[in-house]
Write a structure and sequence with these properties.
The chain has 210 residues and is α/β, with parallel strands linked by helices. It has one domain: TIM Barrel (Alpha-Beta Barrel). It has eight helices and ten strands. Strands 1-2-3-4-5-6-7-8 form an eight-stranded parallel β-barrel. It has a two-stranded antiparallel sheet with strand order 9-10. A hairpin with a 2-residue loop joins strand 9 and strand 10. The protein is globular.
């Protein structure tokens, strides 16, 4: 039976990372974009990652960073997956010796051909907002997301997902995975364990569509 994969992004505290791991998330995301309110230094990320149990993927989130810098941070912190939120090209993605997730904005003029051109493990669909690179906390166009998911398959849905809208999002899009962040927070970078537990319960207990 297929289970929707769960990534909790914006980790800045060891207690949130351990709670999420105990609740069975598949991946934890660490944001290395300095202008993000959930930015974490490589040094602090390394301390958290060092204390994680096995079988939890460690994802580093970057935007328009150099390949050299990404690889350096990945090695220092122990990342196993890179998530790119900037204007990175398919050629750029090939320079990184890691599993890659490319984030693309859910905008009306979404280019379906981009799905085939990126040599990546998955595509993350986030709400598009002019001048912002994800993390808006706003839900996107789920009907468009469903069309993309039907064509590509390994789609990770992001954008303001939490206990209040997860059931509807899963039914509308049927994504490979979901990316939880602002929808399970007390404030940027501080997760609400009760919301997180409820969100994970909704995902895990949902009967897969035939």
């Amino acid at each position: 039976m297929f289970h929707t994969r769960i990534k909790l992004c914006g980790i800045t505290r060891i207690e949130d990372a351990l709670t999420a791991s105990q609740l069975g998330v598949d991946a934890l995301g660490f944001i290395f974009v300095k202008k993000s309110p959930r930015y974490i230094t490589p040094e602090n990320a390394a301390k958290i990652i060092c204390g994680l149990p096995p079988f939890v993927s460690r994802v580093g989130v970057f935007a328009d960073e150099s390949a050299e810098s990404i690889i350096s941070i990945a090695r220092k912190t122990g990342l196993d997956t890179i998530q790119l939120h900037g204007s990175e090209t398919p050629v750029f993605c090939r320079q990184l010796p890691y599993h890659i997730i490319k984030a693309l904005g859910l905008r009306p003029d979404f280019d379906m051909s981009a799905l085939e051109s990126y040599p990546v493990a998955g595509i993350l669909l986030d709400t598009w907002s002019h001048g912002l690179q994800g993390g808006t906390g706003i839900t996107g166009d789920w009907s468009l997301a469903r069309k993309i998911a039907d064509r590509y398959g390994k789609i990770i849905l992001a954008g303001g997902l939490g206990p209040s809208n997860l059931e509807a999002a899963l039914a509308a899009v049927r994504p490979y995975g979901v990316d939880l962040n602002s929808g399970v927070e007390v404030m940027p970078g501080k997760k609400n364990p009760h919301k997180l537990r409820e969100a994970i319960s909704i995902i895990r207990n949902r009967r897969p569509a035939p």
